[in-house]
Amino acid sequence: MASSETRPPRSIFLRHREDESALGEKSRRRALIYFICGNPGLIEFYEGFLAHLRQLVSASASMNGVEVDLYGRSLVGFDDEDHHPPFSAPDNVPLDLEGQICSVYENVAEVVSNEAKRTGGKGYGDVILMGHSVGAYIATEVTHRHLREEEREGWARHVRLRHGFLLFPTLTHIAASPSGRRMQLLRQVPLMDSYFHVLARGLLGVIPEAAVRWLVGRVVGVSRDGGMAAVLARWLKSRDGVWQAVHLGKSEMETIREEVWEERLWGMAEEGEEGGAPRFFILYGKEDHWVANHLRDEFIARRRKDGGETRIEVDEGDLPHAFCLKEEDYKQVAQTVLEWLEEIEDGRA
Fold first, then answer.
1. Of 92, 93, 174, 208, which has fewest CB within 10 angstroms of its CB?
2. Domain spanning 11-174+256-348: CATH 3.40.50.1820
């Protein structure tokens, strides 16, 4: 529930440099990569990844024909300042997966509309949704809804969703994954399903933030003095952040089950277009604790049946699900994303 006491979720906007635009052709296309966080949905986790991707795109000769902006926003509810009253109030509750999907879709349309106004009509010709984990599910579902004829002709008709980049996606049967099974077992413990967030807040509330940062560094493997540990500690010590994460996680368990999308969603970006590129590009981890390998393989087999057009890669190394936490991991993922962008541009040549 919004009020004058709230502010929008935190966001990152990395624009194409104005000096590059001045040196380039005025008629160059413009594109937006809109990034959707995983759970916990704090955009600060992805600052390094997005900044490195920005550098790669700016330095790529293959991307000279398009001006690319990068935008990312925290999911709603993970920052205490983006909602009022607190979730403990009887008339306010955390957002479930459906609520996050609607919020993201509305924000995509808002960002595109605002940019068109800012530039006097020279807005984004293409929009790419890029999501991590449940953010990949959100990106897929937003694209699915946008492709419906009645919605494409409706309030978001000014948005041209062209591609989706899905990073370590949780697209089906998340409860069957190793971590999903553990979460489901935990929910069966008496009172745990309803009061885990209360227990977590009570425990974390008595631990000094410095100690939380130390614990985070030990468990996650990041420097306790670095920015990532500070972000994690701030979230863990927040009033409602853990509650929002748990609530969304339970909603994911209930919602992300059988595949619900029609096959046409996984085709080329535009039917009948010469050359062109796939609508979706997917990067899976070799061993992802939020993905059941056999169900991932079945999903891939369906996409590749009869010469399927979705671009799917399975990492052959040891990239973790939480790739954004360590520099060596997010740089590797950013390089993969750049290669997808270059493939799209090559398809236009």
1. 208
2. yes
